[in-house]
Write a structure and sequence with these properties.
Layout: E1 9-12, E2 15-20, E3 28-30, H1 35-48, H2 52-55, E4 64-68, E5 77-80, E6 83-88, E7 101-103, H3 108-120, H4 125-128, E8 129-134, E9 137-142, E10 151-153
Parallel strand pairs: 2-3, 6-7
Antiparallel strand pairs: 1-2, 4-9, 5-6, 5-10, 8-9
């Protein structure tokens, strides 16, 4: 999200949400923080709006994370909420049987592809998150209407 200024607006289905400095009320979001704080505030404004053109048709999330696999070593871990993923040196040919294991036996792009498969086939996370790979960088996004997950390196 680019920095918003006071009185900037977001239009959704013809209804308007306006940026304010500080405490926001209905159909307003606080633009006084950093980009992450603004995104949280805007998502909250969309999800709590009492304007039918917004509340009946829209749902917002500010969750997205990314992981770069250039420095992963066997045994290093990534945590998605309470779900741990472990880098393994051998190919993981059965990601569903080896939940949370992802291969780092190839180049960065192949390793990222393995993590994407591990996330997208996980019996719990696959319902809440979707992962994609671009040249060794994994982008993880929250699926619409699901709980947010903290992403951390262990």
């Amino acid at each position: 999200m680019n920095a918003a200024n006071v009185a900037d607006t977001v239009s959704i289905n013809g209804a308007v949400i306006t940026a304010v400095a500080g405490a926001a009320s209905n159909d307003q979001f606080d633009q006084s923080g950093n980009a992450t704080a603004e995104a949280v505030s805007l998502a909250h404004a969309i999800n709590t709006s009492t304007t039918a053109l917004i509340s009946k048709h829209c749902e917002a999330s500010n969750f997205a994370g990314s992981v770069t696999l250039a420095t992963r070593t066997a045994g290093s871990k990534l945590l998605f909420g309470m779900h741990e993923f472990t880098a393994i040196a051998a190919a993981n040919t059965t990601p569903q049987a080896n939940q949370g294991g992802f291969s780092i036996s190839g180049n960065d792009t192949a390793d990222a592809a393995a993590l994407v498969v591990a996330i997208n086939t996980h019996p719990v996370l696959s319902h809440d998150l979707v992962a994609s790979n671009a040249a060794g960088g994994v982008t993880i996004r929250q699926r619409r209407g699901t709980a947010a997950y903290a992403v951390s390196d262990r």
